[in-house]
Amino acid sequence: MANSAKKSQQQQFEGKLGAALVNRGDITKTELQEAIQNQVLMGGQLTTNLWELGIASTDKCTEYACKLLKIKAVPAKVVAKTPKKILKIFPRKFVVKNRIIPLGVKNRELSVATCEPWNLAALDEAAFTSGLRIKHYFMAEVPLVKMMDHLYEIPASGRFRMEPMVRQRYVPQQKPKEEEVVED
């Protein structure tokens, strides 16, 4: 039951994210459909598929995700500096299962990075495992998986190691106005 609730919340979020990116003109409906088709075939989150296909950057997806989720993002450079003693709060197996990386402790509150802030069961498990209240920050799936590799030596699959496709967006050329045409 918990897994289907998580999936439903993820689908709701990704629907809103896709709509926001289209409505703001950052991607087209066709590009969104292409990313969704890729997601069906390859798995992963919508943000990963948008990045992988070169449709939208993880930065752009993170910006919109944080607005929709009403939480703050955590940059990879901050996560990369997490002290070893903090990383030891969660064993490697926990990080693999829950995709949560601890960042720091202040006033009995553990700050964590996650690409799945809708996964309340994982956040509850983080609180139980650490014995601390949890404050979560968003990090898109691609940088989070790379940080799991960097900090915990959890090998990232090949799709997370490659660079995204380079995609040139079609921008229609405007016809020059009569006065702009220079005759020789």
Q: Quick summary of this structure?
A:
The chain has 184 residues and is mostly helical. It is 53% helix and 10% strand.
**How would a crystallographer describe the biggest sheet?**
3 strands, mixed
Give the number of DSSP strands: 3
Shape: globular
Strand content: 5-15%
Distance between the termini: 74 Å
Q: How would you name the oligomeric state of the polypeptide chains in this document?
A: single chain
Highlighted features:
single chain; 184 residues; mainly alpha; 10% strand; globular
Secondary-structure topology with pairs:
Layout lengths: L1 H22 L5 H14 L3 H7 L5 H12 L6 H5 L3 H4 L4 H7 L1 E7 L2 E6 L5 H11 L2 E6 L2 H12 L5 H4 L23
Helix pairs in contact: 1-4, 2-3
Describe the structure.
- The chain is mainly alpha-helical.
- The protein is 53% helix and 10% strand.
- It has 10 helices and 3 strands.
- Strands 1-2-3 form a 3-stranded mixed beta sheet, with helices on both faces.
- A hairpin with a 2-residue loop joins β1 and β2 (109-114).
- α1 packs across α4.
- The longest helix has 22 residues, at 2-23.
